[in-house]
Structures are given as C-alpha cells and as structure tokens.
Amino acid sequence: MNNLSAIVISGTSKGIGKGIAEYYLDQGHKVFGCSRSQKTIKNSNYFHYQADITDEKQVCQWVNDIKKQTDKIDLLICNAGIAPAATILTMMPGSLFEDLIQTNISGTFYTCREISKHMMRQRRGRIITISSMSAGLHLEGTSAYSATKSAIVEMTKILAKELAPFGITCNVIAPSMIMTDAVEVLGERIIDKALDKLTIKRKLSIDEICNVISFFASENSTSITGQVIHMGLVT
Q: Is 163 exposed, middle or buried (0-12, 13-18, 19+ CB in 10 A)?
C-alpha cells in the first residue's frame, strides 16, 4: 500500500479493529473508522464516525462523510462484529440470535455495499472481511456465531466475482485466537478448548493479522480474490 492510503475500518473502538487501525496509522496511512461508541484513537490521520452498522441509513451517512474527506478509498476492512459467550443452540435467546445476524451479516452487507459503489466508480480497491476460526472448528456453543461467520465467507466470495470486472478484489481473513474483549467473554473453558484444536496452538498478534491484510492489499495481489486465509488452523 502507498503511504497515506485511505483505509476504511469498521469497529475501531476496541479489539482487533482498534489494533489494525493503530498499526496502519503508525505507518502513516489515513484511517476512517466507525463504532457505536465515541472514538478511542488519537491521531491526526484518524477520522472517526459514530455509527451503528446494523442501521442502513447510518452506514450510508458514514460512507458519504468519508467521500467528503477523501477522493479515493483504497482498502475496506469489515471488522465490526459481536461474539457472545458460548451458548448451545437450544438455550440461545432469539434476541441474541437476531443481534448476531444484524451485526455480523447485515452490518457487513451494508458496509461492503456502500464502499463497493465508490470503488466501482474509481475502478480499483481492496475489500477484506473478517471471519473466524469458529467457522472451521464447529465448537459446541458457537452454532449461531459460526453460522454468521460462514455467511460472511460466502458473501465475500460472490462479491469477489461481481466486482472483479471493476478491478476490485475481495478476500477473507479467518483469524485464530487473539485476545480481545469479545474473545474473553467466551470463558476459559471455550478458549482452552479452541486453542487445543488449533493446528498452531497459540494466540495471534495484531501484527500477524496486519501482515495478511497487507498481502491482500498489495499492488502485486491483483489476481488474488475470493480467497480465505485461515490463520493457525488447517480446515
């Protein structure tokens, strides 16, 4: 990526999204982030918008705001999502299931749709969505969460075909264990069980995730699209 590239990241108030934003800000890139809460990053190249990605109108307003501040969008990282504590399907409240669908699937859909429109006009761009190791581990208690992360993979692969004629690539990163607030709520039993099932049985760092992002975003990766990188896990 060129210096001061315009990078859009959803869910930047904490966790992986904040870590990714800070990583690229340290390299001198411009980052446009959003979250439901107020901004938690202080950097002159960081532009924050307080928005709920499950709200279609708010996503449209966020993207319109970005377009007023930059004439190009080089990279979108759809990171925002929720990961509830492990709950077996028969015990999961319908309200929690709906929250998962709205945040993880609808939020990704709205964000990809609006940014894609801008990238189609400029006839270039990179889109990266975030799935999860859960989609490949099939752990008890993650049925709803894993279903939403699997949906993101399929959505991204089809979007890759739709946007290929416009010079836009779409790929997926499925990180293994990285300790964030969202992961910690899963509880030690689930975390230990997941680590034990990994091919590489250790936790990831933000730098490792950003290494894969940079690979997908590289000018030399124009022929790589519709792919899923599983980190720490052979599926």
A: buried
Give yes or no for a contact between 130 and 94, defined as CB atoms under 8 angstroms apart.
no
Q: Can you give the pTM of this predicted structure?
A: 0.94
Work out the widest C-alpha separation in the chain, in whole angstroms.
Answer: 50
Secondary element (H or E) of residue 195: helix 188-197
pLDDT tens digits, one per residue of 203-215 = 999 999 999 999 9
**Catalytic site residue 145?**
yes
pLDDT of the residue at 86? 84
Closest among 150, 122, 142, 136 to 189, alpha carbons compared: 142
Q: Which pLDDT score, from 0 to 100, does residue 49 have? A: 97
Q: H helices of 15-168, where? A: 15-26, 56-69, 94-100, 107-122, 134-137, 143-163
Query: Cα torsion for 70, 103, 147, 172, to the nearest 10°?
Result: 10
Chain mean pLDDT for the chain: 93
Tell me, what amino acid is at 127?
I
Catalytic hit among 23, 24, 49, 145: 145
**Number of CB atoms found within 10 A of residue 82's CB:** 16
Of 108, 91, 113, nearest to 148 by C-alpha is: 108
pLDDT of residue 215: 98
The residue type at 109: F
